[in-house]
Design goal:
The protein is α/β, with parallel strands linked by helices. The protein is 51% helix and 14% strand. It has an eight-stranded parallel β-barrel, surrounded by seven helices. It is globular.
Length: 299
Amino acid sequence: MHFLNKLIVSLVRLMPHSIVWIFSKRYISGENLEDAVNLVKSLNEKGIYATIDVLGEAIKNKKEALEDKSKCLEVLEAIKNNNLKANLSIKPTQMGLGLDEEFAYQQVSELVEKAKRINNFVRIDMEDSPHTDSTFRLYRRLREKYNNVGVVIQSYLKRSYNDVVELNKLNTNYRLCKGIYIEPAEIAYKERQKVRDNFVNILKEILKAGNYVGIATHDEYLINESYRLIKELNVPKDKFEFQMLLGVKEDLRDKINADGYKIRIYVPFGKQWYKYSIRRLQENPQIAGHIVKNLFRIK
């Protein structure tokens, strides 16, 4: 079945964009900011929070980075104008980190400053390993001036536990996830349970330090372990939240919400939805199998 799903992913890449959109629309709010705003409103009505992301990949120059920063400023303005329970997530390379670290710092500073003025928050996403150190440098520099900015930790990286030990000293606000990029075995755990074990160990270290964490996972094992740690350590509800992707395991999302825990959904939008969709399929090839079954109504 795994081989079949991977084969389906390869076939999906050959399909017209119009066909790919049929299944992508479940995981993406739409091409426009208005689409994201409307979807977040519907989530908020259920007591669910959101983080909004402007889709964009392969920034080639500073002009493109400036354009994407402007879109992010528009997101923050829309959050304020619509009284949304939402914040902003950004990819640091989208802001120019791979081009010029100083330029990226100025870009992200403008976003964090804007968020601060409207009592909001910016999450700096973590990308693949060539950008890990530069992303942490960016975060540390921003943290010297701002307290409304956070970063992401990936439990499949062997370095992450030690990173957290150091970042805890800054009262860091985290999103903890497994990690999605393909990395060499020298730096990343490949066994599922080792990634899970590291996730739990890192989460415990964060919670014991009293820092805020977004527990970002669709893995029921990890959600149950998180519940256990929260109770074991008697963690206040204002020190954590759960986070999930749009369109994934909505029954589990609703259960967490019904259990009285804060949950935040990652809501991407933008015209560059196609690359995001293909990447999601490559990361989770089993989704491709479900998609084809739904398309052809295979039970």
